[in-house]
Amino acid sequence: MSVISLNAYRSYFDDERGLSDLGSYYASWFVGVSRFPDNQWVVEDKTGQQIIRFDVAVAPNELLTDNEDLCYAVKLSAYLARAITHDRKTGGLLSGASQYNYVNNIINHVRWLRLQGVNHLSSVNDGVFAFFRDSIANPLYVRLNLEDRLREKLDELQGIPACLEQYKVFRSRVGHVEFNNNKLSEALGVSDRLLGSAGSPMVVMLTNFRQHNGFYIKNSIKDRYAGGSVKETAETSSQDSIRKELTSISKLYRQCQIFKDLFPVSQRIPEDYFQKNNINPQKISKNMGRAGERTRDIPQPIFFELMDRAIRWVVDYAEPLLELGSQALAQYEEYVSQVGRGGKEVHKVHYASKKMRFWLSKQLEWLDGHPGSPYPISGFTKDTSAKNFESVLPAEQIQNGHALRAQGLTYQEIGERLGVSKATAHNLITKGVAVSGASLNKCLYHLLPTACLLVIYCFTARRQFEVESLQAGCCVDTPNGPVIRMYSAKVYQEHEYFPVTKLVAKAVRVLEALTEPVRNGESQSLLTFPALGGGEINYWSSGKVNEFAEYVGVPDNEGTPWQFSEHQFRRFFAMMFFYKFESGDLATLSWHLRHTDFEMTAKYITDKDFRRAFEEIKAERIVSFAQSAANARTEALCGNMQKELGDFFSSFDAVSESRAEKMIGKVEEIGYILNFVPDGACFGQTPTLLERSKCLMDDAVQTSSACRGSCVGCPNLLGFETGISAEDVGLVLDPASSPMLKAFADRQGAHNV
C-alpha cells in the first residue's frame, strides 16, 4: 500500500495567515514576542532597547498601516538595512538607535511623497526625484508645508466649536484641560514630535492657540512662546541632518534595485535615482546644508587646570569625603534622636540640619588652601550659599539687620524697625551672611562623580554613552596594569578590554564606593547614587562639568560656559602627548601625564574622530613651539629648529585675526611630523626634513634608540634645555603641593635609601 505525501497539502493544516515572507524569521535584535509582521517592533542591541512604530500617520487621517504594501516595504527596508551586513564600511546598521532613526527618515520621505500625490513608491519618477533633491536643504516642516496647513487647521477648529471640543483632554490627576496634540498630528499626517519641535513656528502657533482657547500650557512653554511671532524665513537645514536623511533614503532606493523581487510590485522604485543622478549624500549636504558653528576649543592651560582639579578630587579629596559621608550620617541620626519622640518629623529634620551645618563647618579644615578643595562644607543636604538668600533678601536689609542686632535688639524689635516679620528678621541675621562652599550631598554626589567622569573621559577618550554605561566591576587589575571593560560603540560594536592608567582605575573605584549602597542584582550602574536626605540620585551630566569648573575656580569662556563635548575630551587626550612636558605648575596632572605611556592608546586611534583631534593638537603644538621660538621665551629652547620655527612664526602677519588658523593650515600643508626624544622635540620624520636627520639609517629616523645627548647637534632637533626624560619627580614639580605626590615622593625616598 503506497503512502500519500502530504507536503503539497501543508497549507491546509498549518495556519500561515499571520506570516509574511520574512515573518517566520526571528531576528536576533527583536525583543520578546516582537516579529516582522508586527506594527510595533521592540528591538535591542548591547546598548539598550528601542520601540519602532509603523502605525503612524503619513497623510491626513491616514496611517502607514492603512496601506499594507507600503507598510510592508518600509518594514522590509528597515529589516534589510540591519540584516544584510554587519560591516559598517558597507553601510549596515548595527544598533537599535540607528534602526529607529532610519525608519523615521524613511517614513518622513513617504510623508513628503504623499504630499506630492505619490501614493506608491513605484510612482517615483525623474521629476519627483528632482523636486525632492532641490528641496532637501529646507527643514522637514517646510518641505511638508506644515506651517500653512497647521494655520488652516487651527482656523477651522476656531470656527467650529463642536470640532474644537473633540480636541479637549481632561487630566483628572492634575485637574487640567489639555489640547490633544496627537489627534492634531494625525489630522495633519505628521508626527507629534515634529509639531512640537523647539523654536519652530508650529510651537508658537500652537501655544498662542491654546492660550486663546483656555487650554493648559506649561509655564516654561508659555514664558518662551506665548505672544511670540512666527519667523518669516526658515533656517537652512544643517549639513549633518541632510547627510543623515539622504543616506537613509539612498539605501531604500538601492534596496529596491538589489532586492527588487522582495518588494511588493506597487512599491518597487523604478530606478536608483541617487546613482542615476550621481548624488552623494556627503557632497550634496556640504553644498546645500548649513555648516554648524564651530565650538571654541578649550585652551590647553585651562583644560589642564580643570583636569588638575579633577585629579585632586579623585586622588586627594575622594577618600576624606567618603569617610566624612559615613561620619555625617551617624551624626545626623544622633541629632535627630535628640529631638525626642514627641517632635514632628519636619521639626526633627530642621533641627538636625541646622546642627549639621555647624558640625560640617569644622570638618576637613586641613584642606583649607588646597586648590579646588571641597572645604568648607556649607550644609548637609542643601547648599547654604550667598546666592540662595540674596535673591530674596536685599543686601541693604541684611546689613541693617546685622547692625541692629549688634546694638542688642531682639528679632522682634529688628523686624519692627525694618518693617518685616520676626521670622524674616531672624533669616536676615542667621542666613543673610554669605557662606562659601557646597553641601556634603553636592560634594559627594555631584562634584565628586563629575571629577571621576572627567578623569575617565579624558584618559580613555571614549564616547559619552560608553563611559556613562560603565558597570561596577568593569576595571580589572592585570600583571601589565589595569584594564577596563567598555562598550565600543563605533569600532568593535561589542564590549572590549582597554588598558588604562591607575588613575582611571582609582576613579572607577571611587564611583563604586559612592554607588555601593544602592546597587543590586538588577542594576550595577555607576551613576545612581544614594541621597543623604533619602532616596536615589540619577546622575545627569548636562551642565555638571561647567558646575564643577566654576566651583574649583577654572576660568569660563569670557562669561559663557565652555562646551564640553566628546571632541574636546579627545583633544585633551592628544594634549597629554604633545604638552605633557610643560605642565609642571599643575602638580598632580603633571605627575600622571609623565607616567602615561602613549603607546597603550593604539586601540583608541582607530577612531577617525580621535585621529582628527590628534592632528589638530599636533598642529597647534607646533605653532606654540614656533611662537616660543620667536618671542622672549627662547631660553627654554635651543637647536637648529628653534631658528626655523621662529622664522616660520615671524613670516605671518602679526596683526591678522586669523593668524593662528593660517599657521595651523600651513603646518598641515608642510606636513610637519612631531615626535619627542629625551633631548626635546624631533621633526626628523617630516618628509622634507628627513634627509638631514643625524640618525638617518636606511631611509628611517632611529627615534626609538634615542637617549639623552644622542640628538644634540641634529638639525631637526628643537632642544629643551632641561631635557624631558628625568625620572626624579622633584625635578618638575613640588610634591608638597599634593598629599598624594608627597606620599609618593616619600616612598621613593625610602626606597632609594
From TrEMBL:
GO terms for molecular function: DNA binding. It comes from Stutzerimonas marianensis. Gene3D superfamilies: Intergrase catalytic core (1.10.443.10). It comes from the Bacteria. The keyword Transcription regulation does not apply. This is Integrase. Keywords: DNA recombination. One of its GO terms (biological process) is DNA integration. The keyword Transferase does not apply.
